[in-house]
């Protein structure tokens, strides 16, 4: 089905209620793999970080990564889950080229964390609770690179290359319970949930959760049920979606696609789907197996995991302030409204502002530059704020230069422009471009005298009591000084020289 065959979003929601299930895979930031001592460092030569265990060679035995278990427990606690007193690993059997063992060591019916929830805030401030089914430990697969085709996928490729460096890297899979009741806001809920989960994971320090690097990936399960029905429809599973925007787009597209199929009398196929970033569409992958098709059975080479209650409670005391609570605290400290804080959050500016304040800038100035000039630049260039080539320390330095009187806002914008263009740090840009405010009283006085002499008619009006006309003379001085004068001081000098009191 092509994009042009979709029903409208409004028509889809008029006849059906969406049901979502989100499965998020998070690569843990451990130094070694989940069941062996191989390095997890990125960028190594293909197949250089492997051993008999992660390659599944006969006679090799796995050993559980203790930091991986600790990270899983922290995630479970932060998600308000119950932590299992006893759990174990299982073998999930299926053949796939990048599975060197032909099974994945995972957890099936005995996860380490279960029955939790995460409250997420939508763009209008509404809080939506997403129920968590489970968070379980497993290992990642290797990486396939398909060569010779036009799309980079296996279809049409002439051959494939396999890199097993990633095979065995620790993963936590976080699975929601069916998400119902979101209605037309289902795609927004999906995006907000993944965003909040990403912030939580980063706050815990268990992963950088960089979606663009595959450290966090979301599978979007979606089905529709007719209005008034309580029976879930057949679901599709859009795999490995790797950005917040794409999560929202994938959910929206699948709602429209499912509705189009059902309205035309067709049947939804339970299958995986590939998401296409260029147009937000999905295409069919493979028929989706049910759990029994994976022939799960307990992993015989690993002992069960039984975290002591004392240890679990000790880990609970180490949890950081959770993101939503922290945002509420920052909102009060900064003195901004909920609407403004939501705008800051939507722009991805919270941590940038915090870091800028940490570098010495007042909170209002940090917000001003990130949400003003820098947000505009990011929007125009199609980049996220944290992708801009400027650091919080450099923004704080710009704010300091303004506070000291060395720059005014107009000049500060030019300095930021120079930093973004790669001309150096703020002080270097100021020197190279000659952007400091003209503060020499003699130079300012000369410029003011010239402006008065060149605009005698306006000067006479000001002397006659029309003080508002002073703006024209201020503008003339600012033009003569290339915007590098202090406008307030220029106004004072003009009125002094004309013998006029502003009051």
Features:
Aspartyl/glutamyl-tRNA(Asn/Gln) amidotransferase subunit B, Asn/Gln-tRNA_Trfase_suB/E_cat, 3 domains, 18% strand, alpha+beta, Arc Repressor Mutant, subunit A, 14 strands, GatB_Yqey_C_2, GatB, EC 6.3.5.-, nine-stranded mixed beta sheet, 16 helices
List the helices and strands and how they pair.
Elements: H1 9-15, E1 16-27, H2 66-78, E2 82-83, E3 90-93, E4 103-106, E5 113-121, E6 127-139, E7 143-147, E8 159-163, E9 170-176, H3 186-204, E10 216-226, E11 236-241, H4 244-263, E12 271-276, E13 281-287, E14 297-298, H5 309-317, H6 323-334, H7 338-346, H8 350-358, H9 363-381, H10 392-403, H11 409-420, H12 426-433, H13 441-454, H14 456-463, H15 470-480, H16 487-498
Parallel strand pairs: 11-12
Antiparallel strand pairs: 1-9, 1-10, 2-5, 3-4, 3-14, 5-6, 6-9, 7-8, 10-11, 12-13
Catalytic activity: L-glutamyl-tRNA(Gln) + L-glutamine + ATP + H2O = L-glutaminyl-tRNA(Gln) + L-glutamate + ADP + phosphate + H(+); L-aspartyl-tRNA(Asn) + L-glutamine + ATP + H2O = L-asparaginyl-tRNA(Asn) + L-glutamate + ADP + phosphate + 2 H(+)
Protein name: Aspartyl/glutamyl-tRNA(Asn/Gln) amidotransferase subunit B
EC number: 6.3.5.-
Write up what this structure looks like:
With 503 residues, the chain is α+β, with helices and mostly antiparallel strands. The chain folds into three domains: 3-315, no CATH class; 321-433, no CATH class; 441-498, Arc Repressor Mutant, subunit A (Orthogonal Bundle), CATH 1.10.10. The protein has 16 helices and 14 strands. It has helices at 9-15, 66-78, 186-204, 244-263, 309-317, 323-334, 338-346, 350-358, 363-381, 392-403, 409-420, 426-433, 441-454, 456-463, 470-480, 487-498; strands at residues 16-27, 82-83, 90-93, 103-106, 113-121, 127-139, 143-147, 159-163, 170-176, 216-226, 236-241, 271-276, 281-287, 297-298. A nine-stranded mixed beta sheet has the order 2-5-6-9-1-10-11-12-13. Strands 4-3-14 form a three-stranded antiparallel beta sheet, with no helix packed on it. A two-stranded antiparallel ribbon has the order 7-8. α1 (9-15) crosses α4, α3 (186-204) runs antiparallel to α4 (244-263) and α15 packs across α16 (487-498). The longest helix is centred in the middle third of the chain and has 20 residues, at 244-263. It is elongated and about 95 Å long. The chain starts with 8 loop residues before the first helix and ends in a 5-residue tail after the last helix. The relative contact order is 0.10. The mean pLDDT is 89. This is Aspartyl/glutamyl-tRNA(Asn/Gln) amidotransferase subunit B. Belongs to the GatB/GatE family. GatB subfamily. Keywords: ATP-binding, Ligase, Nucleotide-binding, Protein biosynthesis, Transferase.
